[in-house]
Write a structure and sequence with these properties.
Layout (H helix, E strand, L loop, with lengths): L1 E6 L3 H11 L4 E8 L15 E3 L12 E4 L6 H10 L4 E3 L7 H11 L4 E3 L8 H12 L3 E7 L2 E2 L1 H8 L4 E10 L1 H8 L8 H4 E9 L5 H9 L9 E6 L2 H7 L5 E10 L5 E10 L2 H21 L4 E3 L14 H8 L1
Parallel strand pairs: 1-2, 1-4, 2-3, 4-5, 5-6, 6-14, 10-11
Antiparallel strand pairs: 7-12, 8-9, 9-10, 12-13
Length: about 325
């Protein structure tokens, strides 16, 4: 039985607990939080909730720690600290900063294994980009996110001074999707592919013009995209934007000869982004423990995981039933 810790108990942490309840070869051993532990109520009976600064005391009781903090501020600090103590898995999703984060985690994980950026994008979509590119070397990759709520982008909004709460929807532009699906290999800019639709609850007396300008200047998240900012009340946010849907598509379009075009497409439609992301993390946590057991220490990505390591089933069963 794989003993699992969860660091952070927001939407993603709760999703990880739900996923573990459906996983017979893994069990939740502890939850670590920056909040007052007494304020956290788990679905799993008998599991301790501890302050995050108590994690070091549990190194002998946890085989892998699922890191459920945000990519903007939490993981860059918490990731290396916890990877020095535990095998870890996380969903760090700032694509541009992944190489630097990988290097940082690799230095920390000297006698542990740290699988990073293993949600659905980066993560599953990354795997499909690699696979489809290998199959169709003469072609182009396209990724569309949404329509849905992006946790990372919503967290980035909440980090802007004067923002009380916020949610961001990533919306693919239909004309761009249709152009890719046609196999015409269009050249598309970020502005042509997606709209960033932001709903923001400002602090009382906050300067709305300044907030909007700050949002549109956030690098990687909004600066290179068409971004719409709508200011709303807390009541409107609760009533109209409480769900966490998401999804997206990865395309590879190319040609295998002068006569034949080929289009590969992988898509997700998710009613709960955090629950699905957490399910990916739990599967990768299993693989992390297996890699660590082989002495494959340091920082890894989904590219380094054999597919069979993700499943609770043994290799021959998978071959018989799925190959």
């Amino acid at each position: 039985m794989i003993r699992v810790g969860i660091a952070g108990y927001g939407n993603l942490g709760r999703g990880a607990e739900l996923a573990l309840l459906q996983t017979p070869d893994m069990k939740l051993s502890a939850v670590f939080t920056r909040r007052a532990p007494g304020d956290v109520t788990l679905m799993t009976q008998g599991v301790p909730v501890l302050s995050l600064d108590k994690a070091k005391s549990m190194t002998g009781g946890i085989d892998v720690m699922i890191l459920c903090g945000g990519s903007a501020k939490d993981l860059p600090e918490q990731g290396p600290e916890l990877a020095a103590l535990f095998n870890t898995v996380d969903s760090f999703d700032n694509h541009t900063d992944i190489p630097a984060y990988l290097e940082k985690m690799d230095k920390a994980a000297v006698q542990t294994t740290a699988v990073i950026s293993s949600g659905w994008d980066p993560g599953l979509f990354s795997m499909m980009r690699l696979l489809s590119g290998a199959v169709l070397p003469n072609g182009n990759n396209y990724t569309f996110w949404g329509s849905g709520v992006s946790q990372g982008h919503s967290n980035a909004l909440r980090g802007v001074k004067g923002v009380k709460d916020a949610v961001q929807y990533t919306i693919p532009k239909p004309d761009a999707v249709d152009a890719v699906r046609s196999g015409s290999n269009p050249v598309l800019t970020a502005v042509q592919k997606h709209l960033r639709d932001c709903y923001v609850v400002p602090d009382e007396n906050a300067d709305l013009t300044v907030i909007e300008r700050e949002i549109k200047q956030i690098p990687y998240y909004f600066a290179d995209y068409e971004t719409k900012v709508t200011f709303i009340t807390e009541e409107e946010l609760r009533e109209n934007h409480a769900g966490m849907p998401h999804g997206g598509r990865v395309f590879r379009t190319g040609a295998t000869s002068e006569e034949h075009k080929q289009v590969m497409e992988f898509s997700l439609k998710l009613e709960s982004n955090p629950e699905f992301t957490a399910s990916v993390l739990v599967a990768c946590a299993r693989a992390t423990v297996r890699l660590s057991g082989e002495g494959q220490f340091g920082a890894k990505t989904v590219f380094d995981i054999p597919l069979t390591y993700l499943s609770p089933a043994d290799r021959m069963k998978l071959i018989k039933e799925m190959l």
